[in-house]
Amino acid sequence: MKAVITAGGRGTRLRPITWNLNKHLIPLANEPMLTNAFKKVAEVGIVDVAINVNPGEVDSMRAVFGDGSAWGLRLTYLEQEGGACGVGQILYSARSWIGEDDVLLYFGDNVVLGSLQQLVDKFVNERLDASFAFVEVADPERFGVPEFDAHGALIAIREKPAVPPSRFAQTGLYLYRMPKYLEAFEQITPSARGEYEISDINTHMVRQGKVGYQIMHGWWKDTGTPEALLEGNQLLLNEMTQAEAVVDASLAKLDDTRIQGRVKIGKDCIFGEDVLIRGPVVIGDNVQIDHAFIGPHTTIGSGARVSRAQIQHSIIMEGAQVMADTMIVDSIVGKNAIVTSERSSLPHGKCLIIGENSQVEI
């Protein structure tokens, strides 16, 4: 079995963070989002993995992930063909690379907790043509929604229906026998928005093949919005074990620095006076912190500086500077961004340079 992980799209709902950063590289638990997918794929024994990327982004992706050997994978980078033609075209575009192998299609912006082993085993042992993972959600109209008959049999997948036929959403996990997938692709036509809809392919396979599904009872999150991104970060931090919560021996700190709970700290960090860190928290390399509180579900990227601030349930990205005597919560501070106190310059007051799609509370 091979795997294709999606890493395309423009991440418009996450702007301004994604104006100059592919959303799949946004750090969750201080690692690029895609690494969560790599770990899940590697856990079930898949080695050959292709990353589907936007045209022109192969080099930037390869610069981050290399050949995949860090996760025990062999990575291939495939540019999306023909522009925004829909998720349904991704495997078709990768057909030469996949060949006759079975394939796992994995949406790279999904955060999945728990193992995929049961899903894969069901697909293999029952010799299915396709298998899907569903999860109960509060807002199924935002997703592909499975429709079941009176006996609980799957009969169709409806894409973002105004009136959902069930309370379940299709997660970004799909298993296919590639020849059957290609047969289905040849039978569908683009939707009204000009895209090959994965739900149309899946519905065709439900009606013409042997298809199974699994209801997921663990955590699954589509990180398409800032709120969901922060929740995904929280979920991954909650999964951090005590063994993973390692403080590098190079940390320079004063006696009044307090570290409580599961906290992972990188190398060459310097903590000054009056610092309290309460986990789960992950802090990168070369981070400077003084007179600050770093609260639960926060990640601080490498090279960042925090002074006289209280931060909780937030993502502070690489090289950012937060030097403001205030409480910052539920926030995402982008790479090399600067947050300072209104009293750091004259005249005193709120000084704002706010780009398109920004959000500020003052």
Percent of residues in helices comes to 10-25%
Question: What's the CATH H-level homologous superfamily of the largest domain?
Answer: Spore Coat Polysaccharide Biosynthesis Protein SpsA, Chain A
Any idea of the CATH topology of the largest domain?
A: Spore Coat Polysaccharide Biosynthesis Protein SpsA, Chain A
Taking Cα atoms only, what radius of gyration do you get, to the nearest Å?
A: 22 Å
Terminal-residue CA separation: 51 Å
Give the percentage of residues in beta strands. 25-35%
What is the makeup of the main sheet? 7 strands, mixed
Structural domain tally: 2
Largest beta sheet: strand ordering: 5-4-1-6-11-8-12
Q: What oligomeric arrangement do these chains adopt?
A: single chain
* Low-pLDDT stretches: none
Total DSSP helices: 8
CATH class of the largest domain: Alpha Beta
Task: Offer a few descriptive terms.
single chain; 362 residues; alpha/beta; Spore Coat Polysaccharide Biosynthesis Protein SpsA, Chain A; UDP N-Acetylglucosamine Acyltransferase, domain 1; 7-stranded mixed β-sheet; 6-stranded parallel β-sheet; 29 strands
